[in-house]
Each structure stands twice: as C-alpha cells, then as structure tokens.
C-alpha cells in the first residue's frame, strides 16, 4: 500500500502561534517611550505619507493624460485651414491650463520628495502631454517644441503662507519621458498624413511623412538606452512604413485621384524635400 494517504485524516498539526498575535504581545511588552517602537511608528508614518502622495500623483497624471488625449482629438478633427487655426488656438489654451493645473500640482507634490520614487506614477501623463504639445506646435508653425522650452514652462513662482514672500517650484520633466512622447508623436503624424491624403492636402501629408522619417532616424542613435524606447522605436518604424506606403499608393493611383490632388502636387518639389534616411533600414 502506497504511503500517499499515510497522514490522511490525521495530519499532525504544529502548535505555532500566528505572527499577528506574537507581534501584539511583543508590542504590549514594550514601554511607551521605547526607541524601537518610536522608530517603527516613524517608518509606518513615512510609508503611509508616501503611499498617499503616490495616489495623488496617479490621479494628477490621469487627469493630464485624459485632457491631452482630448486635445489631440481636437487637432485631428480640424480639416480645413480655418478650422485648423481655431483648433490650434483652443488647444494652446487647454494645454496652458494643464501647465497651470495638474502639472503644477505635480511639482508641488514632489517639491520635497525624490522624483525617482514616483516616476512611474507620472510618466504616462508627461508622455501624453509632450505628444499633444509637440503635435500642436507642428500644426501651428511646423516646428517641434524643444525640451528646454517645455522645462521653462514648468517653472512657477509660488507664494508663501504669509502672502509676501515667494519661492520657485519646478516640475522636473525627465528626458526619457520627453523622448517617449516624441515617439508617440509619430503615430499621430501617421494619422494626420493619411487624413490629409483623404482630404486632398498632399502638402501636409508630405510634411508629416518627412517629420516621421526624421524622428525615426534620430531615435536610432538612442536605440538600446531603455526598454520602453527600444519598443517604441520599432513602432516608429511601422509608422514610417505606413506613411510611405500611403503616399506611394497616392502617387501610383495619381490618375484616379481628384483634380484637387493634382493641383496640390504641382506645388511640391521632390528635390527640395529629399530625405537622407536611406541606409538606416
């Protein structure tokens, strides 16, 4: 007979006290002014404060992410030149409210706390804000807002409690979050290029294609410095392929396109917009 059921129904039980009861007895035996007890109470208080701060930062980051997504959707909804101008003005106002609202609150929360302890709580909001901010600047003046320009906007003068003196508070933007936001920007530019082709705006689609190419070419020099950036570099390559495929199909089917597309194509010179990214892939 096998021994698998040897202790079935009559398994010996260990008469060990569970840990909570032992801890309670040990705590009761300590004096109220014990330095050991005071040390553990102080540690518990700091951990509780850190957890509460983390939850507040997660909420602020979520608010930033939601509003940034709405700004991006607003910019995509503009088709005509007049609608684009109005959308850019509204987007800038809403982004400025984010800078003066949740992003400022993040800086106040992290004023006396190391950023690396809560980096994961705010990285999603920062990336989405960078994506919306750079997309708005591209639609406004065909340029990408730089890291120093954004970091300068994240500096605030906060009044002290007495109402007379002020102190400077800075919401630090990690460089990696800025680069990850630029990587996400290529996806929005890919959608912008395809929508421009559908609406007959070839000039806008060519510009979006070149920006996506340049961003991808620049990211290749940073490949390997982070797992998340490496993953998004692969996604950027996919976005480049989609944009190039859409523009290639537009050229191949040029005879089937409306006359408005031919008029727009006549104003674009391929030699002036030559890309030098051949050889990277």
TrEMBL record:
Mg(2+) binds at residues 131, 188. It is found in: Cytoplasm; Nucleus. The keyword Cytoplasm applies. Residues 1-11 have a biased composition (Basic residues). Residues 1-20 are annotated as: Disordered. The keyword Transcription regulation does not apply. Its main location: cytoplasm. Transmembrane segments: none annotated. It comes from the Eukaryota. This is Translin-associated protein X. It comes from Bicyclus anynana (Squinting bush brown butterfly).
């Amino acid at each position: 007979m096998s021994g698998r059921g040897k202790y079935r129904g009559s398994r010996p039980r260990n008469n060990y006290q569970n840990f909570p009861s032992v801890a309670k007895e040990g705590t009761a035996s300590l004096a109220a002014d014990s330095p050991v007890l005071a040390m553990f109470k102080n540690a518990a208080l700091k951990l509780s404060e850190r957890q509460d701060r983390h939850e507040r930062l997660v909420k602020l980051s979520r608010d930033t992410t939601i509003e940034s997504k709405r700004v991006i959707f607003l910019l995509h909804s503009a088709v005509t030149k007049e609608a684009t101008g109005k959308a850019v003005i509204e987007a800038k106002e809403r982004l400025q409210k984010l800078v003066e609202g949740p992003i400022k609150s993040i800086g106040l929360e992290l004023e006396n706390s190391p950023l690396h302890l809560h980096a994961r709580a705010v990285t999603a909001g920062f990336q989405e804000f960078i994506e919306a901010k750079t997309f708005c600047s591209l639609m406004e003046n065909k340029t990408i807002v730089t890291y120093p320009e954004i970091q300068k906007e994240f500096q605030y003068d906060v009044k002290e409690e007495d109402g007379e003196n002020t102190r400077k508070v800075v919401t630090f933007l990690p460089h990696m979050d800025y680069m990850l936001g630029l990587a996400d920007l290529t996806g929005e530019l890919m959608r912008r290029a395809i929508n421009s082709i559908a609406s007959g705006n070839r000039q806008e689609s060519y510009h979006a294609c070149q920006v996506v190419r340049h961003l991808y070419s620049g990211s290749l020099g940073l490949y390997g410095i982070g797992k998340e950036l490496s993953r998004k570099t692969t996604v950027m390559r996919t976005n480049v392929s989609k944009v190039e495929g859409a523009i290639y199909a537009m050229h191949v089917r040029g005879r089937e396109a409306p006359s408005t597309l031919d008029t727009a194509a006549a104003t674009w010179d391929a030699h002036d917009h030559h890309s030098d990214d051949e050889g990277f892939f």
